[in-house]
Amino acid sequence: xxxPVGWRPGTTVKPTPAYxxxxxxxxxxxxYRRKFERSFTRRMSAxxxxxxxxxxxxxxxxxxxxxxxxxxxxxxxxxxxxxxxASRADRYVAGDHSPHMLEITRTVxxxxxxxxxxxxxxxxxxxxxxxxxxxxxxxVCMRLLHHFREREDRVRVLAELARVSRGPLxxxxxxxxxxKQRRYAARRTRQGKPLTRVLQTRDEFAAEAGEAGWxxxxxxxxxxxxxxxxxxxxxxxxxPA
Length: 241
Known about the structure:
Layout: H1 26-34, H2 40-61, E1 70-73, H3 82-88, E2 91-96, H4 99-111, E3 118-123, E4 138-141, H5 151-164, E5 169-174, H6 179-190, H7 202-211, E6 214-221, E7 229-236
Parallel strand pairs: 1-2, 1-4, 2-3, 4-5
Antiparallel strand pairs: 5-7, 6-7
């Protein structure tokens, strides 16, 4: 199984962000597992997203020196991508602020016959991870950053991922220049309501990533019309091109 993934003793975990408090309820955590299957559009979007994440993961693995890579999935959520990540990495580490999400991910891996790949789980806030420096070879952080309204928090998450990962990162953000998100922003403005999600241009995202020590290697749009999510492959600023 190889050496265990280490912990950072004494790490201070910040309070759970308001956006994700609902996932501390076991029933609502379980419901999240079914979120991407509720309609034909969502199922098609989920299939497209899986394809793009797999493409980004292939690119990330090509940039990893280790022949037995350890992959961190933070947040793992309800294990939607866990079988993909565990099947492609030598060892899989699941992280989430919700113990229920971690348990669901464990069950998903057991059902896929991949439970032996799960070598560690870590519970806590992504802005303050209880993992040692350079604990893993690559990391994935999907559908998280757009929930943090403050730039400081988004940069902190990215900086933590840069700290714990020796290699590249696959992540995502909501593209404010996509048709769906522009329409959403215009509707909220007409209604006099604030945005409930963070929208960024590609340049804005790249600037925040750069502040955390990353460079953008490549990115892919999920769907300008139906989503606005953009999957991104990042690597450390000092990594070879």
